[in-house]
Amino acid sequence: MHIPLVDLRIQYENLHSEIDRAMQDVISNSAFIGGPPVSQFEESFAAYLGTTHAVGVGNGTDALYLALKAAGIGPGDEVLLPAMTFIATSEAVSLTGAHPVFADIRNDDYCIDLEDAESKITPSTKAIIPVHLYGQPADMSAVMALAKQYGLTVIEDTAQAHAAKFGDQTAGTIGDLGCFSFYPGKNLGAYGDGGAVVTGDAELAMKVRRLANHGRSAKYDHSMEGVNSRLDGLQAAVLSVKLRYLDAWSAARYDNALEYSKRLTGMSEVTTPRVLKGRTHVFHLYALRVQRRDELLAHLREHGVGAGIHYPIPCPLLEAYSDKGYRSEDFPVASQVAGELLSLPMFPELTIDQIEYIVAQVGEFYGYPA
Ligand SMILES: *Cc1c(COP(=O)(O)O)cnc(C)c1O
Fold first, then answer.
1. Ligand 1 atom showing the smallest separation from residue 186 Cα
2. What are the E-state strand segments in the chain?
3. With a threshold of 0.85, does the pTM exceed it?
4. Other beta carbons within 10 Å of 13
């Protein structure tokens, strides 16, 4: 049996007539950049999340960059973020000229450790980026309390957590700005790059929109310099079709996670993901903590299971930041977890047969009888 980490083919097979028609409409109307396909998607995405503004942008990294810029973050400022994330989060901070300040993560949800973050606050700290890692929201009530106490802007990295909930609020709509990626493998994925910034603040939304479109206020009137980072019409059309299925896909991911966890809990070498109280996890990734991780990964791959590691190296310990002199002792939890995490295949269409096969391979590796 061969099971990829993510299978995007089945989803397209199920939706191809709707998607093909939507893309054909964009092409027939030459609505390639902006126009009705983009504004329709922006409106439905904002409404779906329960906020007022969504601005389509080129990708998730740009969404973070544009959100930071709109919030006035720039040279000399410091921005808090977790040590366990994709490099895009810190890249976006550096792109503005500000300094990324990494905090360790928690042992339970692998999201930012707010005690460590608080200890790193200085007069230059202007913002915090909680990353809703793997699809589980960070503790947003604690993030908001910290932000209020120190006057920080909150920018949620929601690239892995479309439709996840913290209490009754949707991830991405709790802070000042929420940033989404529509990279094809994300829970809501386009057929190329795409992203969005969402906010309940009309002024911030307008700033993001301007910055993403060359600082343009009217056709050839530029109030400032910006960048070119727009969501294109074809991607917006695909996303509008797919948004209608997102609830069903999130539920299917959740069910798959339960099926995995049910079958894996008997194995003492394996720690299944925890869903904390009051949070809805949308399982962008199903990440286990395991003993002898690299050997298990090799075993699974030999047997056709497309497992992965997210992420093998904590962000501050990447070579890109070697000049900063960070040590693994600075991020003890992230450093330990990075050696133990293993992501099993996760996508809505995963079957029980596939889950049973994958679990059987894990069991075989640790010597459990089939
Ligand atoms: C995917 C991802 C991004 C970047 O999104 P792109 O669309 O690939 O630029 C940012 N942060 C996290 C946590 C991600 O997983």
1. 1
2. 53-57, 78-82, 99-103, 125-128, 153-157, 165-166, 169-170, 177-181, 195-199, 216-218, 221-222, 270-271, 279-280, 286-290, 341-344
3. yes
4. 9
